[in-house]
Amino acid sequence: MEDTNPELEQFRQQWRAEVSARTQTDGSRDIKSTKTTRRPPPITSLGSSRGVKPAHENEEEEPPTFHSLDGPREDAGYGESSEAVAKEPESALEHYEQAVERETTGKLGESLSLYRKAFRMDDRVDQKYKSKHFPPSYFASKPSNTNPSSASVTVPNTAHHSLDGPPQTIKQLIGAFSGLSIEPAPPAIEGTPAPPCPIATLPEEILVHIFTDVAILDVASFARLAQVCKRMAYLVATEEQVWKRVCLGSEVGFGAMHYQWQREVLGGPLKEEEPDSEDSDEEVVPPLDNLAITELLHSSAYASSWHQMFRTRPRVRFNGCYISTVNYQRAGQASQSQVTWHSPVHIVTYYRYLRFFRDGTVISLLTTSEPAEVVHHLTKELQEAHRGGAAPHLPSIVMQHALRGRWRLSTTTDNPEVDIKDAEGDVFIETEGVSSKYMYRMKLSLRSAGKGARNNKLVWQGFWNYNLLTDDSGEFTLRNDKAFFWSRVRSYGDGA
User: Fold this and answer.
1) Three-class SS of residue 464?
2) What domain of life does the UniProt record list for this protein's source (predicted)?
């Protein structure tokens, strides 16, 4: 029967071999258990409380909180041997380690007692535990590329050697991006070809031309290009020819700033002043033009940086309007038909609006209407349409109170005793008054509000009513008036 069934005979031989191998393994394990030596427990070991359960059950019920630096023990899971080997803690660090183990298993009472014993023995035991099990190198992230710069492989880069050194400054960080290139996007699915990235293959000269066009259309969008990748961040921060074009241009730069009057108060062309006969013999020195002032300040006051000049030099903005919100209280009158023990108080709110134009004109408006009802109507066309109270049925009727005017920035002519850089920053505005014989004059200073914004605030310096007939002026009190804050209006586009 055995000869006729070879498969059964083969199964019996395999079974006998497995039994003999298992018997030899059990014998060697018994010999090892009699010669067990004490080992320091790893961080994740839970002592005698975990010895009665198999290792795989503990892993399912409670994930480890601390990761062992020494690896798993070979005798883990054999509760009787580990229980026999375990000894009472002696040092403060051993008490603290056992307290951590008890706390991990939920035995808070035992862990609290062990914590107290550990701190009585050494009040800095927690620092020793941290330095032993969690050294600084355990948290420090190692660089994936040992030579991240564009230098050759044979030249070691020491930028990553000091992992715990002082952090780099913004200038140093941007300078480290100089050797980087634009990296294309990774493939959407692993194993498939990456999507094309034409801008990554463009030379730097063409990228600069593209960035210049973007900056002319919208400087904010050009600045946000620095968030795309490190290479673009380097170009945005260091490409001076782009910032030079922005500064010298008339779109948002200083080419549109006026340091002398360009228009009459009512918006007409400026009349040429005839020189006096008494001063005709004296040589009149013409004032510096806009370009000359900009180039002089670029080298002397802004460290030859067009980027710094654009950020910090005072300038007005044309793609929005400046709004001043004024709130004040005044006493009211009690009703005569009722007996009351209190006096009513009225809270008055009104707004001042200023919109600047590139031709040197400005619109000034004082009204109680809120900005959402006003800012979209601050145009020259609607101002002319509602002059004299015309078209009262239109929603833009608020423009019937708008005043025409002109503006200019201050120079050394207004402040001859200070430097040319310090002389800038003030805005002079002249508008028509309540009648043809009066004119309003304002003096404001350009300031910055907030952390990142610049030139978005106008602070009052003075407000006068000038009489054209008598050539005298009276100053208004600015007790309730507040500063103007710039707000962008998308319907203005780049400004007019």
Assistant:
1) strand
2) Eukaryota
Q: What is the mean pLDDT of residues 359-384?
A: 94
> For the purposes of burial, counting CB atoms within 10 Å of the CB of 408, is it exposed (0-12), middle (13-18) or buried (19 or more)?
buried
Q: Per-residue pLDDT averaged across 289-315, rounded?
A: 89
pLDDT tens per residue, range 86-140? 578 889 999 999 999 888 877 778 888 899 999 989 988 988 898 888 876 555 5
The pair of structure tokens assigned to 320 is 């929005």
Helix or strand (DSSP H, E) at 64? none
Q: Which one, of 254, 201, 253, lies nearest residue 231 by Cα?
A: 201
Average pLDDT score over residue span 192-198: 84
> Residue 406: which of 354, 458, 456, 457 has the closest Cα?
354
Measured N-to-C along each axis, helices 204-217 and 230-238 cross at an angle, to the nearest 10 degrees, of 70
Predicted structure pTM score = 0.61
Supply the DSSP string of 202-218, one letter for each residue. S-HHHHHHHHHHHHHH-
